[in-house]
């Protein structure tokens, strides 16, 4: 989900750079067609955010099972990951909002880039991994797809350091590598969309300026000119 300059939001499910399902949201008071298709019982039980995610998930994947899903911090919650695992047999990984931290899993102090801390928990047979990773800023992950980092620790790669202005070897845990690879397709769709045509505001030129042309004999103004002619 990313807002654009027209104050609407696009919710996209994509894989390999191809969007499989999407919705546009322009506000709860709008007459948007998609907003009228809410499953009221599901929305009342789980809220609009989870309801929208599951609706897009079903539209993209139907009843197929075994999907690995990656999501941004708008959607990520223990409850949603639990629903995906138990009702749809899907595993998921997402970034976790800083204001939605679990108190018992918050270590507080920041740490150096490449360092991480983690904890695991099991609830009704569903395993969760919570991991905090020091990147350019603190990144927090929640996952049912990944287990203990000791089983699959990750890789060390060169990354640019803006403070020293040199490349440094930075450790990347497997959960970050998989998340970046999974979200790449949504980011690619967003990039391609931004390269397309967009509405642009144009200032109205003053009458008599070179940018403002006089009406032709047929009382029409040349294409592209915006004029105030008395």
Automatic annotation (TrEMBL):
Segments forming domain PiggyBac transposable element-derived protein: 20-192
Region (Disordered): 197-230
Family annotation (Pfam families): DDE_Tnp_1_7
Full protein name: PiggyBac transposable element-derived protein domain-containing protein
Organism, scientific name: Cymbomonas tetramitiformis
């Amino acid at each position: 989900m990313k807002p654009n300059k027209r104050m609407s939001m696009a919710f996209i499910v994509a894989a390999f750079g191809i969007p499989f399902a999407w919705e546009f949201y322009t506000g709860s008071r709008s007459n948007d067609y998609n907003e009228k298709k809410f499953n009221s019982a599901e929305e009342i039980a789980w809220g609009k955010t989870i309801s929208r995610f599951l609706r897009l998930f079903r539209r993209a994947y139907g009843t197929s099972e075994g999907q690995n899903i990656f999501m941004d911090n708008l959607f990520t919650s223990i409850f949603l990951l639990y629903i995906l695992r138990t009702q749809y047999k899907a595993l998921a990984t997402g970034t976790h909002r800083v204001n939605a931290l679990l108190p018992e899993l918050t270590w507080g102090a920041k740490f150096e880039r490449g360092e991480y801390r983690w904890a695991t928990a099991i609830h009704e047979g569903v395993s969760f991994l919570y991991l905090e990773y020091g990147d350019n800023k603190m990144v927090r992950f929640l996952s049912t797809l990944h287990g203990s980092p000791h089983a699959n620790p990750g890789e060390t790669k060169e990354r640019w350091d803006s403070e020293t202005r040199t490349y440094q070897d930075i450790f990347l845990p497997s959960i970050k590598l998989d998340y970046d690879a999974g979200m790449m397709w949504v980011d690619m769709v967003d990039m391609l969309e931004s390269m397309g045509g967009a509405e642009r505001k144009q200032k109205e030129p003053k009458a008599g300026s070179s940018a403002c042309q006089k009406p032709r004999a047929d009382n029409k103004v040349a294409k592209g000119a915006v004029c105030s002619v008395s």
